[in-house]
Amino acid sequence: MTKRHTYRFLAIVLTIGLNCSHADAVEIETFTQPYRSVDVPAAEMGVLKSVLVEEGTRVSEGQLLAQIDDRVLRSSLEIADAAVRAVSTRRAAEAELALCEEQLRSYRELLSEGNATQREVDRAETNFWQATTRMQTVREEAEMRELEQKRITVQLAHRRIESPLDGVVVRIVKEAGEFVSPTDPVVLRVVQLDRLRAIFSVPLSRIDGFEKSQRIQVRISGNNSPVDAVIETISPVADAESASVRVTVRIDNRDRKILSGVICRWDLGGNLP
C-alpha cells in the first residue's frame, strides 16, 4: 500500500469514527424545577388575620405561615372548657343515686323482717332505676361536652395555615384582611429546593438500558462541572407523537447552588450503561 493510499484509508476510518461518535452523542435538555411545589390552602373559610412570611422566606415543616381569624371559636372553646369542668350536676346525680341505693337496701331488709310492704320495695326500686338513668344521662352529657371541646379545638387548628414541607415561600396569594373561601382557598405557595427535579423526553431508541435509581450525570446551565443525578421514574408509556419516554431525574441541591428554572442537559451517549 502506497503512502497516499494509507492516508486515504486513515481518513476514511477517522470519518467513520467521528460519525459513530456523533451518532452516540445525543444530548437532550429540559429545565430544572422544584422537587415539590405546594399551593398551601386554608382548611377553614374566614378572614385572613395575618400572614407571617414573605416571598423568599425559608420555612420548616409545621411552621405557622398565616392565621385565619379565630376569635369567635376561641370564645366558644372557653365556654366548652367551662362546661367540661362543671361538676355540680354530676355530684348531685351521684348523691341521689347513692341515697336511692341505700333506701332500696333498707326496704329490702325491712321486707325480709316483715316491717315493710312489697309496694314500698317496688317504689324504692323505681326511684333507684330513675336515679341510675339520670346518672347515665349526666355521663352522656359530659361525654358530649368533651367531644364538643375537641371539635372546637380541631377547628382552631384548621385556622392555622402551616407549612407542609421544608422549603421556601415563592408566592403570596392572599394578604391579611382578605376573605378565604372554599372556592378559592389557596393562601401561598411553598416549594422544596434542597432537591430539584428535571423531566426529560428520552428518545425510544435510547431508553433501553436505563433503569430506576440509576446514577447519571447532567450539566446545569452556568455550571461547568457535571452534576450527579439519579433516575427517579421512567414512564411505562411512550409518547406516540414525539416517540419518546418521560424520565424524571432527581438532583441533590442541599447547598442551594443550583437554581430552579435553568437549563439542564443530559448527554445520553455519555451515560450509556
UniProtKB/TrEMBL annotation:
SUPFAM superfamilies documented for this protein: HlyD-like secretion proteins (SSF111369)
Leader peptide range in chain numbering: 1-25
One GO cellular component term: efflux pump complex
Keyword field contains Methyltransferase: no
Residue stretches spanning the membrane: none
GO molecular function, one term: efflux transmembrane transporter activity
InterPro entries from the UniProt entry: MdtA-like_BSH (IPR058625), RND_pump_MFP (IPR006143)
Coiled coil: 90-127
UniProt entry keywords in alphabetical sequence: Coiled coil, Signal
Multidrug resistance protein MdtA-like barrel-sandwich hybrid domain: residues covered: 37-187
Similarity field: Belongs to the membrane fusion protein (MFP) (TC 8.A.1) family.
NCBIfam families: RND_mfp
Protein name: RND family efflux transporter MFP subunit
